[in-house]
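task queued by scheduler; priority normal; single chain, no ligands, no partner chains; default sampling; output format set to structure tokens
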Amino acid sequence: MKSQINEKRLINIVIVEDNDNTREALEQLFLSADSYECINSFSSCEDTLKNIDRCYPDVLLMDIELEGMSGIDGIRILKDTYPNLKILVLTVFEDEDKIFKAIQAGADGYILKKSTPQDILHSVKDAHEGGSPITPSIAKKILNLLASENKNKRNFNLTKSEKETLKYLVEGLSYEKIAEEMVRSIHTVRSHVRNIYSKLYVHSKTEAVVKALKNKII
């Protein structure tokens, strides 16, 4: 009975990474950690797209620089087909161009390979629970870049509740935590998020967060 209970709590993960050593190290990390299971791994986006239907994960870890199709293009295609799939970028790249392209493609989070194993595990759990994990140094780059751009405030016709929901998304809270803070049902929070996406013309929480900061919505 205990093993059945634990199995229900596993977070299923697929890894897309073309470096054999890195891929195997990540597989070992999730194998040795409680509540996580790597159900498959691929060295290319092409193989991932061919097989994702039979190994659909809770969270997909995606490298950016891959042979053949780039991770950013892979994210875009996967999000178009599976909009609810949680995709977490795990990369060595810290330049703003790749960060924003990944976010615009629909990435739910952006963390660096130099992160500690515990930070990687926490980020995967956070993404699974509805958060938008971003490595602190990446978050700082995003804020610095936005600070250098024109930030004319726009309203986007968000309601008070939608703005409050967006504020909590910016803080990285999951839907469940937002519902607790707002004393609302999870269904109501999801409805607010759908409205936010529609009004901001975005397709992911990470993209909504960037747009909120860029336009000083909150």
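post-processing summary
- Residues 151-214 form a domain with the Arc Repressor Mutant, subunit A fold (CATH 1.10.10.10).
- The beta strands are 11-16, 36-42, 59-62, 86-91, 109-112.
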